[in-house]
Design a protein that fits this description.
Blueprint (H helix, E strand, L loop, with lengths): L3 H34 L1 E2 L3 H16 L6 E9 L4 E2 L3 E6 L8 E11 L2 E21 L14 E7 L18 E2 L14 E2 L9 E7 L4 E8 L8 E6 L5 E6 L4 E3 L3
């Protein structure tokens, strides 16, 4: 019996120590759960999505027209629980192509809580007008001279031609090689009248119409006023170009 008492005391001490350690471990776990329960994290995918949406809105493009690579997020940290809203803006006014930097202000329940830096390489794809053959200086552009192709325009000049109809009828300023993406500065309007051309001068009112022959004194573009000489009176006047054979005097 005397031997049993020390054994009981020993067992009591051992169990007491074990329960104490176990209780301490539970309390620590509860503390960690409480510390993390009041915060929320924003995944990188969310920032990528708002990055692309900002680009689409500013550039007037669909998501399928924009490709983002090497995307980075700096300054993302856990925020307090609540309704999160983002305000995205560009600090500098550089072109939204190539390497792009944006800033996202993160608000919780209407109060700004963090500022996150977003960056990435942006490629923009669009249908552009290209030359189907070599063109010489002074040639008038026709439909068969062109084709439309989808190209990455992120590193091309902003005056690239995207509408074929805007190039038709224009004249090349210099030689252009086949498969070149057309740019506005490569083309100019083609005059439909040249100095020395003979035209019909038309002057008319409600009940009177007069036509006389005239000589063009300067090159003329459709719809513009140019100087014309009345062949019969030798008088110089200004008339508006209607087509390649007629001008109208405005009253």
């Amino acid at each position: 019996m005397r031997k049993a008492v020390p054994i009981m005391i020993l067992l009591t001490c051992l169990f007491g120590v074990c329960l104490s350690v176990g209780a301490t471990g539970v309390d620590e776990n509860k503390t960690r759960a409480i510390a993390s329960r009041g915060y929320q994290s924003i995944p990188e995918a969310t920032f990528r999505e708002i990055f692309v949406e900002y680009l689409c809105d500013q550039l007037g493009k669909d998501k399928s027209d924009i490709m983002v690579s090497r995307f980075k997020v700096i300054g993302n940290r856990p925020l307090l629980q609540g309704e999160i809203r983002f305000q995205v803006f560009q600090k500098d006014k550089r072109r939204l192509a190539g390497f792009v930097r944006l800033v996202a202000l993160c608000s919780v329940n209407g109060a700004v809580k963090s500022q996150v830096k977003l960056s990435g390489r942006v490629d923009i794809f669009e249908s552009v007008v290209c030359t189907g053959r070599n063109l010489k200086k002074g040639e008038i552009i026709e439909k068969d001279d062109l084709y439309v192709a989808r190209k990455n325009i992120a590193h091309r000049s902003p005056d690239i031609v995207t509408d074929m109809t805007k190039a038709l009828g224009l004249m090349t300023k210099h030689n252009i090689r086949e498969d070149t993406c057309l740019k506005e500065w490569m083309l100019e309007r083609s005059p439909i009248l040249k100095k020395g051309d003979m035209v019909t001068i038309v002057a008319e009112s409600d009940d009177l119409k007069v036509t006389v022959p005239g000589r063009v004194l300067e090159k003329g573009y459709l719809g513009e006023l140019i100087e014309i000489q009345n062949v019969m009176s030798r008088k110089k006047i200004y008339a508006r170009v209607v087509n390649g054979s007629m001008v109208i005097v405005d009253f």
